[in-house]
């Protein structure tokens, strides 16, 4: 148990990095890490000794984050369609004196795509581990990762998605 507790402490920087990328806010990230560690301590008996502790912790964090996002949606009682705000999702035009704002572009990705992108790219997890953490098939992981990379590239370049329809001018008929 003591060795596992030391291993748990060793993963706190990874958990903080992932939580910060998920939430986009240092305070919310620290809260998410704390909630994850509390959940891990409460449910320690559910972890199988010898299995990947890091993946188990990331699964706990993922589930807590998703539950929190769902709770927030229920409290808001409204959703925004991505197509309705597509013009707001484009990164600002680059100026030589401004650095790219990767964090802002990451936060504009859909939650499911952002999670997969961060787990694969930042945490260097394999597709199988990401599928286990997020609870989706490997094919879905690969699809979300591809879409996330493509959309992030578009946001960083300041381009609209190629599939976005052109605006249509409406006329009043009598």
Protein topology:
Elements: H1 2-10, H2 12-23, H3 26-42, H4 53-76, H5 102-107, H6 111-122, H7 127-134, H8 138-157
Describe the structure.
62% of the residues lie in helices and 0% in strands. The protein has 174 residues and is an all-alpha fold. The chain is globular and about 50 Å long.
Short overview:
With about 170 residues, this protein is mainly α. The chain contains 8 helices and no strands.
Sheet-strand content, in percent, reads under 5%
Helix content, binned percent: 55-70%
| Distinct helical segment count | 8
Largest sheet: none
The residue-averaged pLDDT reads 78
Uncertain residue ranges: 160-166
String of helices and strands: HHHHHHHH
Q: In angstroms, what is the radius of gyration?
A: 19 Å
Terminal Cα separation, in Å? 78 Å
Q: Tell me how many strands there are.
A: 0
Highlighted features:
globular, 174 residues, 8 helices, 62% helix, 0% strand, single chain, mainly alpha
């Amino acid at each position: 148990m003591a060795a596992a507790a030391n291993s748990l402490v060793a993963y706190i920087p990874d958990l903080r990095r992932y939580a910060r990328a998920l939430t986009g806010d240092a305070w919310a990230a620290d809260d998410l890490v704390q909630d994850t560690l509390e959940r891990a301590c409460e449910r320690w008996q559910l972890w199988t000794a010898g299995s990947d502790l890091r993946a188990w912790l990331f699964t706990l964090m993922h589930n807590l984050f998703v539950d929190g996002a769902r709770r927030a949606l229920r409290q808001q009682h409204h959703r925004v369609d991505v197509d309705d705000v597509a013009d707001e999702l484009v990164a600002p035009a680059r100026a030589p004196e401004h650095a790219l704002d990767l964090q802002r572009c990451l936060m504009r990705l859909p939650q499911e795509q952002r999670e997969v992108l961060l787990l694969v790219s930042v945490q260097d997890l394999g597709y199988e581990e990401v599928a286990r953490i997020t609870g989706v098939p490997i094919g879905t992981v690969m699809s979300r990762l591809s879409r996330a990379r493509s959309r992030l590239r578009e946001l960083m370049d300041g381009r609209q998605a190629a599939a976005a329809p052109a605006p249509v001018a409406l006329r009043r008929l009598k």
